[in-house]
Amino acid sequence: MDVKLNTIRLVRVLSLAGEILNNAVSFAVFCVLDFVDFILCFVYKVIDFWMESQWKPCYCSSAKQRIIEGDNILVSEECESKIVCLTSTNLQVEDISDTLYSRPSIVAQLSKFIINDLNKTKKTTVTSTFTIDSTIVEVLRRNVVPRWSDCDCKICNSWTSSRKDTLFVKAEGPKGMLDYKYKAREDVLFIHGFISSSVFWTETLFPNFSTTVKSTYRLLAVDILGFGRSPKPTDSLYTLREHVEMIEKSVLEAFQVKSFHIVAHSLGCILALAIAVKHPGSIKSLTLLAPPYFPVPKGEPATQYIMRRIAPRRVWPVMAFGASVACWIRTYLLESFCCHTHNAAWHTLHNIICGTAGNLDSYLDTVCNQLKCEVTIFHGGDDEVIPVECSYNVQRRIPRAQVKVVENKDHITIVVGRQKAFAKELEKIWKRSKCD
């Protein structure tokens, strides 16, 4: 008994020591990364000026510049930021996550203190209480042009030659079903997750569906805006509205889809919920894989809370470190790494995952109360990107939802590696909804 008790105590001590070490190392590492990011901001501005004769603004510096004259754009900076343009343009109210330009860190707070201190010595007659990121102003004015740091290879820009302003859709089905005017007996919309594409579905599930499904269903896998072979416009802020409207235009309208099943993974789950809420009478079944839903405590700024949950600024585990670097540190090294999707990836990450945090509760309530379709949630038991608790959080909002935890599988292997089994599970879900 004493040996067992001593073992338990030793494990607790080692666990506590490991946590303390992880916190200490994480603090030191991210302080260094914050400083590097701060320096690179100025370095690349100098290169911008040298290469393009312009001093380009960015989100990590001068994040809140006042609009003095000639603009009617207002921004609310209380957690859920809104951009409103009162001029006669085609711009609409956009949901812009404040995490794009507000990511508290020691270096950021120090630089903010210095800038504010310097501003006190300047005389100004500005009385407006509205501020806005200068990059957003530049985007809204349609003055964004490709930069020297953007990838200019053939693959990255292949979408521009087609002159199409619709998303890439990989459609499979029986002969005749792929005609836009053909009304399929069954339609399924597949939405991939972050830093992914339609290949996540087409190379795994599509070949493994039964002959019955292939002869009855029209399978529609989409590359969301800014990813895969879809357009990657530099003047887009990649908001939820933009993503949803492009899916409607490129899939629902183009293929004349009236009622359909949805299968979505990770970030795609948020888009799936938004589409389901917008088309409640058209959804036959809703299948979510690793939905990133974190209930926000009362009094917490939703966007900042979610950013801390998905990117905890920790060096361990490895997936947490990767998410933290991608979410907090916007250096041009990362832009090069993300290649042609760096603009899309950055804005989609913040505006979809963080920016919709305050809306997900209402989305889930709508699915619970207004949709009658079957809701099934799959989650890998070893998922280090989105914890399993997220799926159970969804189930609490939608009691009829079935949560299936697949042991020894992570964020990717929930599908990859078990595609045959998952294809069969999907077919069962679709068959049940067909019989209802």
Automatic annotation (TrEMBL):
Gene3D superfamilies: alpha/beta hydrolase
Lineage: Eukaryota, Viridiplantae, Streptophyta, Embryophyta, Tracheophyta
Limits of the AB hydrolase-1 domain: 188-294
Name of the molecule in the record: AB hydrolase-1 domain-containing protein
Coiled-coil spans in chain: none
Pfam families per the UniProt record, alphabetical: Abhydrolase_1
InterPro entries: AB_hydrolase_1 (IPR000073), AB_hydrolase_fold (IPR029058)
Record keywords: Membrane, Transmembrane, Transmembrane helix
TM spans (from-to): 20-47
